[in-house]
Amino acid sequence: MPLKTYGVLSARAVDTRREGASHTPHYQIHLTDDQGTHYRAAVNVLSQEQPSELLYLVADDFRHPLTARLEDLSSGWNTLPSGPGGPNLDFVRGNLFDPAGMRSLPPDVAGPDNDLADLLDHYVQRAVADPAARLYVFGSRFGPEPGVKDKVFGFLPGNGVHDVHMNQGNSHRFRGDDGVWQDGGFLLRFPGQSRWVGIFLAFQSQSWHTDDTTGHTLEHVDGTRPTPAVRPVRIVAALVDPAGPAPGAETVTLLNASADPVDLTGWRVVGRLGHGAPVQAAGPLAPGACLTVPLGAEARLGDHGGELSLLDAAGLKVHGVSYTAEQVREGWTVVF
Asked: In whole numbers, what is the pLDDT of the chain averaged over residues?
């Protein structure tokens, strides 16, 4: 079953706490919303399974259509309905970042700037020091717990967010938490700098090819985190807003970056909601060659930002990109 209470907390960070010596250490964040309600975000920095070090990626200048979906959320906890229609996170389908860029770090070791807690502290302390900064913490809610003080910061009642990490493709032990469009993570918004920072965490034991309904690891499929070397065909451009009256002839351009021809029979280009267009090619795509894929009425690109994914004949994701409204200009091609 998926997480019971998935959503996003919009609040201000006011304090932090590290748990370096704990059996299951977390980086703890104390937050308050505009109504004065207190929350604790418990962020894992160590896995209970091997390899124990978490994978992380920090997008220091995060640009994605997700940020526009967050700006109108109410301060405090926002429960998010399942599916791609809202600002939900999905590390596999949402094209939030390139998984190949993730790295592992130990949870807490002696010395400065050399562990995951140090990295999180670098960004969260900036938010604590900036009264205008806001955190958007995605995960599963716990509490409120009437009459029970928070075990870390002592506020009453205990209340907060956990599962602030990838929540699909789990091993059998944690398979019950699997789901789609329910991954955890957190974004920091610094209005004075017009900047968003995205921080995304995953366990090394998780699979990156998951069932589109359950989020379970796909059997008999290599779920290893993708690397550039195993993605020969990728999306390199999209004509989002063709010149002239709408609807125009929108297209997506693919590149075979490998040294071998690639058969694209049965491949598709799809958007966030799963609507797409078939990749029609006269034959295998030659090494170094590009192919322009026309998009039909069911695969219209949005001028206000969107996500595009390339799926192979088995429905497995090969590559994905995103674009924001600021990148869209009439008659111009968005280059990824």
From this structure: 94
Among 64, 71, 47, 83, CA closest to 166: 47
245: in domain: yes
CA angle 117, 121, 127 (to 5 degrees): 155
C-alpha distances in angstroms, 53 versus 46, 47, 86, 166, 176?
Answer: 6, 6, 31, 14, 22
For the chain, the domain total comes to 2
Local confidence band at 228 (pLDDT 50, 70, 90 cut-offs): confident
Q: Same structural domain for residues 124 and 192? A: yes
- Structural domain containing residue 293: 231-335
Distance CA 31, CA 19 (A): 17
Q: Which backbone phi and psi does 320 adopt, to 5 degrees? A: -150, 150
Whole-angstrom distance, CA of residue 80 vs CA of residue 57? 23
Note if the pTM is more than 0.85: yes
Does 57 lie in the same domain as 182?
yes
Considering only CA atoms, which of 72, 71, 73, 76 is closest in space to residue 35?
76
What is the pLDDT averaged over residues 194-203? Answer: 98
In the chain, the N- to C-terminal Cα span, in Å, equals 36
CA–CA separation, 46 vs 27, rounded Å? 10
8-state DSSP, 16:
E
Task: Return the H-helix or E-strand segment holding 69.
Answer: helix 66-70
Query: In this predicted structure, what is the pLDDT of residue 22?
Result: 59
Q: For residues 75 and 69, is the Cβ–Cβ distance under 8 A?
A: no
| Among 242, 230, 195, 211, residue whose Cα is nearest residue 316 | 211
Together in a domain, 195 and 140: yes
pLDDT tens track for 48-82? 888 899 999 999 999 999 999 998 899 999 999 99
For 17, 79, 97, the CA distances from 26, given in Å and listed in that order, are 9, 23, 23
